[in-house]
Amino acid sequence: MAFENILVETFDAVGLIRLNRPQALNALNAALLGELNAALEQFDADERIGAIVITGSEKAFAAGADIKEMQALDFVGAYRSDFLGEWEKITRARKPVIAAVAGYALGGGCELAMMCDFIIAAKTAKFGQPEITLGIMPGMGGTQRLARFIGKAKAMDLCLTGRMMDADEAERSGLVARVVPSEDLLDEALRAAARIASFSRPVVMMAKETVNRAYETTLGEGLRFERRLFHSMFALEDQKEGMSAFVEKRTPAFKNR
Ligand code: HXC
């Protein structure tokens, strides 16, 4: 499939998607969204792929939803088309998705990064929800995911003042898993993804699903969900292989079954 707003590559078992609208700092428009969803679906369905990385450019992961596309939108149009609703599809990928963020991750860009499973940031990364400066508020999860991921104080601060947060503050706040020098960003993200892809696919997918469950349910239900899936892992050949390899002091050869 030919894409115009993203670039897609594979590195062995890792799928890489680069947002590619440099003229608009990777502003997220409908065309880009359609391509991103299609590429993610392809990688998710591809048995050779074990993890996915989404990245932008050195200057911008994405500077937000496309303001020029939204400018003339009216209420009825937004409501009837469920404007931005399609973005939730990103979170349906069952394989892990890492956001590798350099430069601006603003508005929808910050929200897209938060839809991924974790964020690796370059020192240059800047996160923010500047919608308030445009006469709107976040609409792709910013108010909800930020509040859950970094707490009320910082979520309110970012959503109400529209200020930006640098990579170190984002890491201190728990928004970002790792901060790395800019020149190492892609390598670090690809290495993390390759490591994930080297483990048992079903176990990786269940671990992702279970951590995400923590944000959808009570502690009691989440713990029960975890324990039941944990029990099911003893039906996997990969559990026998992983534990035998440990006991026999060799590297496991997972079969993804
Ligand atoms: C459309 C955008 C854009 C955006 C940048 N551009 N951000 N176009 N939508 N979100 C375009 C600019 O218009 C410009 O195009 C080109 O990209 C380069 O941007 P500059 O502003 O010239 O770059 P710079 O001076 O380096 O400033 C970078 C910046 C600034 C600080 C990131 O671009 C900026 O403030 N952008 C908007 C950030 C923002 O408000 N994001 C939230 C969007 S709302 P031209 O053609 O002029 O050269 C949102 C809502 C989410 O995301 C969901 C709820 C609805």
From TrEMBL:
Its EC number is 4.2.1.17. Pfam families: ECH_1. One of its GO terms (biological process) is fatty acid beta-oxidation. InterPro entries: ClpP/crotonase-like_dom_sf, Enoyl-CoA_hyd/isom_CS, Enoyl-CoA_hydra/iso, Enoyl-CoA_hydra_C. Keywords: Fatty acid metabolism, Lipid metabolism, Lyase. The keyword Lyase applies. One of its GO terms (molecular function) is enoyl-CoA hydratase activity. It catalyses: a 4-saturated-(3S)-3-hydroxyacyl-CoA = a (3E)-enoyl-CoA + H2O; a (3S)-3-hydroxyacyl-CoA = a (2E)-enoyl-CoA + H2O. Could possibly oxidize fatty acids using specific components. Belongs to the enoyl-CoA hydratase/isomerase family. This is enoyl-CoA hydratase. It comes from Phyllobacterium leguminum. The lineage of its organism: Bacteria, Pseudomonadati, Pseudomonadota, Alphaproteobacteria, Hyphomicrobiales.
